Amino acid sequence: MKDKHMLVKRYKKNPILTRDDVPYPVATVHNAGVVKFNGRYIMLFRSHLRNGRSIIGRADSKDGFSFKVHPKPFLTPATDSTFNEYEEFGVEDLRINPFENQFLLTYSAYSRHGVRIALAQTEDFDKVERIALITQADLRNVVIFPEKFNDRYIRLDRPHSEISPWSIWVSYSPDLIHWGDSRVIMKPVTYHWDEMKIGPGAPPVKTAKGWLHIYHGVFKTMSGTVYRLGVALHDLNDPAKIIGVSDQWILQPEDPWEITGYVPNVVFTCGAVPEDDGTIKIYWGGADTVMCAGIAVIDELVELCLSASRPPL
Ligand code: BMA
Asked: Which of the listed residues 54, 93, 107, 267 should we mutate to test ligand 1's pocket, taking the one with most ligand atoms within 8 A of CB?
């Protein structure tokens, strides 16, 4: 049964994209970055191949719900020497970060050396250029803010740690390639829905009261983990400063295709699209198997961060 009081309203015809919609053989369709470009929605989704490794496909839509998949994948592991070594096991969980007149694509590159984040860029989604591998091993979930701050780019990321529950960090760069001044800005809370780990989700969206960031949090149960989504509000001029983090989740696995699938009990976002009418379309992978969508009112999510706040650290 679905919780009627949640701020995120699920699209009635979820899931919006499944492997049956893909013209080449894949096992899953999930964890997609989505953006609005020239009046159309572009979705770059992850698919497991039948060998268990992932590639990225593209789907387009006029209304943000009904998507048509391109005949060929959008991004597959690189074949050239620099990226090849680090994408050998696949490419995953791509975020589309709008920045001026281009889109910065950040995705997980998996290899025998671990997982790291690669940066590519495109202006039109036809020509894609790989720029650099921008993290060392054991870092995932990079989202880049759509503006510079004191002449530097800012990203949120999520290093792994044996000592601390995995947390959200901030890093700075003058050129998108060299990143530093990293520090932790948000941590899981003990015996709370995000107790086990948290990580950046959709690229942050600018609102009058701050940058709205939809992130994921994980809780460990006796029968495995549960991935949910939460919201945090970052200072407009200094995104490393968190103004408020909602104490409550905004979305948890409830539909059958979120509860059962390749990995059970997962809602995981890599993209959300703000609309001119003050709503936001949120996209999430259900159980690492299908793509789903929902709508929320941006001001209500912002208010939740401010009125029902838990400490970020
Ligand atoms: C995370 C990532 C995501 C995935 C999630 C749930 O660690 O691998 O891509 O959606 O686990 O399986």
From this structure: 93
Under 8 Å between Cβ of 27 and 50? yes
- Per-residue pLDDT, 81: 76
Question: Is the minimum distance from the CB of 288 to ligand 1 under 6 angstroms?
Answer: yes
- C-alpha angle 52/282/110, rounded to 5°? 25
Pick the residue whose CA is nearest to atom 12 on ligand 1. 263
Q: Could you tell me the distance, in angstroms and rounded to a whole number, from the CA of residue 43 to the centre of ligand 1?
A: 18
> What pLDDT was estimated at residue 3?
78
**pTM for this prediction:** 0.98
Q: Tell me how far apart the 2 most distant CA atoms of the chain are, in Å.
A: 51
Mean per-residue pLDDT, 107-122: 98
Distance (Å) of CA 128 to CA 31, 82, 104, 124, 273 = 20, 16, 10, 8, 21
What is the Å distance from ligand 1's center to 208 Cα? 32
Q: Are 10 and 294 in contact (CB under 8 A)?
A: yes
Mutation pick for ligand 1 pocket among 263, 267, 269, 270 (CB with most ligand atoms within 8 Å): 263
Encode pLDDT of 270-305 as tens digits: 999 999 999 999 999 999 999 999 999 999 999 999
The rounded Å distance from CA 285 to ligand 1 centre is 10
Count CB neighbours of 257 within 10 A: 17
Rounded CA-CA distance 297/253 in Å is: 20
Give the model's pLDDT for residue 1: 64
Q: How far is CA 304 from CA 120, 142, 249, in A?
A: 34, 24, 10
Distances (CA, A) of 8 to 11, 39, 133, 138: 9, 23, 34, 31
pLDDT band at 183 (very low <50, low <70, confident <90, very high): very high
Q: Is 258 in the pocket of ligand 1 (CB under 6 A)?
A: no
State yes or no: pLDDT of 308 exceeds 90: no
Amino acid letter at 115?
V
